[in-house]
Amino acid sequence: MSEFLRTEREGPVATIWIDRQDKRNTLTVEMREAFPAIFRELDGDEAVRVVVLRGAGGKAFSAGGDMSEFLKLSPWELEQWGDTLTCAERCRKPVIAAIDGFTMGAGLELALACDFRLATEKSEFAFPEIRLGMIPGSGGTQRALRLIGMTRAKQFMMTGERIPARTAEAWGLITRCVAETEFEAALTELTGELAAKAPLALRTLKSVLNLGADAPLESAIALERKAYSWLRTTHDYEEGVTAFFEKRPPQFTGK
Fold first, then answer.
1. Number of helices followed by number of strands (H, E) in the chain
2. Helices 199-212 & 217-231, crossing angle to 10 degrees?
3. Is there a catalytic annotation at residue 124?
4. Is 41 helix (H, G, I), strand (E, B) or coil?
5. Could you give the CA distance from residue 82 to residue 86 in angstroms, rounded to a whole number?
6. N or C: which end of the chain has fewer CB atoms below 10 A?
7. First to last CA, the chain
8. Over the range 64-90, which residues count as b (16 or more CB within 10 Å of their CB) and which as e?
9. Contacts of 218 (CB under 8 A, 6+ apart)
10. Where are the beta strands (DSSP E) in 93-152?
């Protein structure tokens, strides 16, 4: 693991901290390459039900990639480099980007690969790559396009403008914007709600949503039906129905 990344666990919630505060949590190549292994480990840990990704210091989630490395990489390295930030999307568990501060470039691409983006009002978002003669190259163009639509995506990325959290929320770029004083409580509420859900159902739903979004409607609905039918074989499905009729909270085990 990179010296600038650390993982903390509290009950069913694992938090990955980006901690390079003197550089506004910008991502080095080493940090990028460490993310897939971190997510694989958490994905395979049955005790972990929710993963949170956040930046240390209260000033930035991540202000982007470390520009001092940009001219040192060859085209083939950059192509591989771009895939590292997809690990949050590939993780089968819910992943929350807890955003407090600047979220730009590669930092925003990492956040967009997460399932939820909870941000403080002071947070700001941008893809400034166009100002440097480049474009987002780690999934940013396509994920942002699918979230905010073509008109706003062109405005946002082709101008490199910086938008505040309330605008990002209105556009659909982030899930929710809250006051800074409410941030920790909102994060705790969301992680608690997700951790209480059936793990297999959440995993299956995440897959159906991600795969179905780009599939023809008929194929996506067929995927949904098969996934639903498969869940009928699980303990959690039976437990959920039984608990409903017994008027008690379900005890999901992920089996």
1. 11, 10
2. 170
3. no
4. helix
5. 8
6. C
7. 31
8. bbbeeeeeeeeeeeeeebbebbbbbbe
9. none
10. 95-99, 102-104, 116-120, 124-126
- Is 89 known to be catalytic? no
Radius of gyration over alpha carbons of the chain, in Å? 19
Annotation: CATH topology of 199-245: Lyase 2-enoyl-coa Hydratase; Chain  A, domain 2 (1.10.12)
Q: Report domain extents, the chain.
A: 5-195, 199-245
Out of 109, 121, 189, 218, which one is annotated catalytic? 109
What is the tens place of the pLDDT at every residue in 230-249?
999 999 999 999 999 999 99
198: which residues sit within 8 A by CB, 6+ positions away?
234, 236, 237, 239, 240, 250, 252, 254
Q: From the candidates 33, 129, 169, 224, give the one annotated as an active-site residue.
A: 129
The CATH number fitting domain 5-195, selected from 3.90.226.10, 1.10.285.10, 3.90.1150.10, 3.30.565.10: 3.90.226.10
Classify burial at 42, counting beta carbons within 10 Å of its beta carbon; exposed 0-12, middle 13-18, buried 19 or more.
buried
pTM value is: 0.95
How does pLDDT run across 30-49, given as a tens digit for each residue?
999 999 999 999 999 999 99
Q: How far apart, in whole angstroms, are the C-alpha atoms of residue 173 and residue 146?
A: 9
> Phi-psi category of 58—alpha, beta or left, where left has phi over 0 and alpha has psi -120 to 50?
left
Closest residue by Cα to residue 3 from 15, 19, 23:
19
Closest of 107, 143, 105, 103 to residue 120, by C-alpha: 103
Judge whether 85 and 136 are in contact, CB under 8 Å: no
